[in-house]
Amino acid sequence: MTLARQLFNRRMLWMLLGCLVVFGGIFGFKFFGRYMMNQHMDNMSLPPATVTTARVEQQRWQTRLSAVGSLRAVNGVNVTTQAQGEVKAIYFESGQSVDRGAVLAELAAAPETAQIEVLEAEHRLAERDYKRIAELYKKGVATLRELDQAQAILDQVVANLSVQRATINERIITAPFSGQLGIRQVDLGQNVAPGDAVVSLQQLQPIFVDFSLSERDFSRVREGQGVELTAAAIPEQVFQGRITAIDPAIDPRNRTFLLQATLENAKRKLRPGMFADVAVKVEKFRSVLVVPRTAISFAPYGNAVFVIRKSQNKDQQRGRGGQKDGKGAQPQPQPEWVAVKRFVKTGEERGDLIEIIEGVQAGEQVATTGLLKLRNEGGVIINNDNPPPDQLAPKPDNS
């Protein structure tokens, strides 16, 4: 029994050793194959990426103070009623442009108009009584007291007539200034009370923009200084204006001061309530290095550009005259241009351009498209047939 167990144990041992050898060979072969594949992938040259390029340019930019402003009408009100009554007539359409003094609506005034006729009759009677007593006074028949009483009655009737006419005029709603009407807020036959809005009225030409600057810039601005304005609602146009008022006080809560600029708005594109980016033109100019904004690779750990330069391997290959390497194989052709990643510090943006404070030099060539396909020291092919826009003040194609 002991001899049989020994033979069984030996057989099991040889079977285990055989399994180890077989599986070890399989795993060793797979590991070797994966290693060779990785070596091949690491040594395999990737195809060059096609990019567009632009030169780093040196320009002179005028110093500007930037702020966010809010547009406001020179005059803007809700036209309201001064009297109570029923809307008898409406003489305007929503969105219509009107002149100062134009009649917008009228309230019913039948009792007031009838009262005018009564007062006019009283006026005629009082005027005749005064003239008759004045003649009698000249003849010495009437006394001065009677003349004064007739004069007082006449003056009282005239005053009552003026009050009644003013009451009727309050029922005629007119435009206080020239401008553009909003949406009508009353209907025919509606009973309105004093202070109820009839329609909004805005004077759009010219138009104000109110904005704030830091107190450290107080000495750098003055009335008459030029400003540029862009609005998100009208991205294709830049509006010009002038500073027309500067608040003399600094707000102690945020250490800013308020300014107001006036802009021409002949085409009525700017509207009250719009937010706008305002740039105050300061006379000082500065020299800056700029590239198209598309050349910047933005990242949380730092912005970068890809500088395009001549490939050194390409020059060495030309020097060898296309000779074979030591293994007798023809070397792979090297790209003429390579991309070198370089971190930069960016500054102000204007239009399609962005300022580079440090990281590049004037005249260097940077990639402007295809950045996601680039790797450091990777080959590139330059194709500038369709470059991205690089305008300081871009305009739409149909402008």
From TrEMBL:
<feature type="transmembrane region" description="Helical">
    <location>
        <begin position="12"/>
        <end position="32"/>
    </location>
</feature>
<dbReference type="InterPro" id="IPR058792">
    <property type="entry name" value="Beta-barrel_RND_2"/>
</dbReference>
<keyword id="KW-0472">Membrane</keyword>
<dbReference type="InterPro" id="IPR006143">
    <property type="entry name" value="RND_pump_MFP"/>
</dbReference>
<protein>
    <submittedName>
        <fullName>Efflux RND transporter periplasmic adaptor subunit</fullName>
    </submittedName>
</protein>
<dbReference type="Pfam" id="PF25917">
    <property type="entry name" value="BSH_RND"/>
</dbReference>
<feature type="region of interest" description="Disordered">
    <location>
        <begin position="312"/>
        <end position="336"/>
    </location>
</feature>
<feature type="compositionally biased region" description="Basic and acidic residues">
    <location>
        <begin position="312"/>
        <end position="327"/>
    </location>
</feature>
<dbReference type="InterPro" id="IPR058625">
    <property type="entry name" value="MdtA-like_BSH"/>
</dbReference>
<keyword id="KW-1133">Transmembrane helix</keyword>
<dbReference type="GO" id="GO:1990281">
    <property type="term" value="C:efflux pump complex"/>
</dbReference>
<dbReference type="GO" id="GO:0015562">
    <property type="term" value="F:efflux transmembrane transporter activity"/>
</dbReference>
<keyword id="KW-0812">Transmembrane</keyword>
<comment type="similarity">
    <text>Belongs to the membrane fusion protein (MFP) (TC 8.A.1) family.</text>
</comment>
<feature type="domain" description="Multidrug resistance protein MdtA-like barrel-sandwich hybrid">
    <location>
        <begin position="76"/>
        <end position="197"/>
    </location>
</feature>
<feature type="region of interest" description="Disordered">
    <location>
        <begin position="377"/>
        <end position="399"/>
    </location>
</feature>
<dbReference type="Pfam" id="PF25954">
    <property type="entry name" value="Beta-barrel_RND_2"/>
</dbReference>
<feature type="domain" description="CusB-like beta-barrel">
    <location>
        <begin position="208"/>
        <end position="281"/>
    </location>
</feature>
